[in-house]
Amino acid sequence: LEKHFTKDLDNRSTKFQTQLLSKAIKLLKTGHEMVYSTCSILSIENENIIQKFINSNQLEVIPINTSSFSEIPISGTLCIAPSELYEGFFVAKLRKQ
Which of 14, 31, 80, 95 has the most C-beta neighbours closer than 10 Å? Predict the structure, then answer.
């Protein structure tokens, strides 16, 4: 599995996810909400990307009730590791500022 995760793949995936979110933000009206979700559990495709948009005051996180989960990197988001029941995924509810 490690041979499939290369630095080049990481860079391309991160760039692609950033472009997708940037386009979605342009289409979203100020004050409106969206859900950002990926089938990845890698922080470079999830938390790191939305954190850039949070830091630039373009988005804010609308907290998801995560009381049943522990060790959430960005409060209010949800990153689920793969298990025997499902594959891993990431979900964040965001509002355009």
Answer: 14
